[in-house]
Amino acid sequence: MKLDDTVAKFCPEFPGYARTVTIRQLLNHTSGLTEYGDALAGDEDDDENKTPRPAHEFTATEALQALSRQQKLNFRSGLTYEYSNSGYVVLGQIIERVSGKRYADFLKEAIFDPLGMQDTLVVDERHQKPSRLALGYDKPSGHWQDVTYSPWNFIYGNRGIISTVNDLFKWDQALYTERLVRHPTLELAFTPGRINNGQEIIETHMTNLLKRPCSYGFGWVISSLDGDKVVEHTGRSAGYSAVIIRVPSRRVTAILLSNFFNADAPEIARQMIEIATPGKVR
Hints:
Layout: H1 7-10, H2 23-27, H3 36-41, H4 44-48, H5 60-68, H6 85-99, H7 103-112, E1 121-122, E2 137-138, E3 145-146, E4 161-162, H8 165-174, H9 183-189, H10 204-210, E5 215-216, E6 221-225, E7 228-237, E8 240-247, E9 252-258, H11 265-276
Antiparallel strand pairs: 1-4, 2-3, 5-6, 6-7, 7-8, 8-9
Helix pairs in contact: 5-6
């Protein structure tokens, strides 16, 4: 599989536009695919917090099928940057088709087991039950409620990995070696992507938030301070927040996991980095 292979090569059920959408564009969010939540049953984040819960539990396969029924892209592939959860879902399904294995099993065999990440797994429609799971909480009615369950929990690719700080540290440290990926390939992930006209992808939300230029690579927001490259990402779902910030040249990483939607999590992680690299990252 190559970065400039098209979606059509692996997902022939998609309309003709799939011949213009590449793996590279899925990785850097320039594909133009609509959000799979919209394709399935309305806006995902809104549905996650609605009660009662929908009776049907969606799967990644259904998300791919729903996307394949969309007759047009939101914009011509490569035209602009627009964050897309759908890109990750499609990439996960492509991994299954190329490897002949479930996404969860592939990651376990290729990453989790070799690195000793014994408390990490992908939850899918088999409803795997991790031990010692921290339940997710929110305050939808002004008081704390367990919101761990969602019918969207079993869609994976953009979500579905349950882990710990200790396991993620093992993964982080492996990135300084070639146990998982060759250094030149990893550098591609840490290199700003470009749209069709050659312009570097600008991550406007993070640029405005951090007050410094931020670009986007393959799953990483990229910035620079005092000559040090900083790569980071945040994530959230109902009841959970996650942040990882890496300063590879200094081998410093902050990992923050929260079992409630903590809007302050990114800033807390940045303060952790500042403590570890005084006068460098702020």
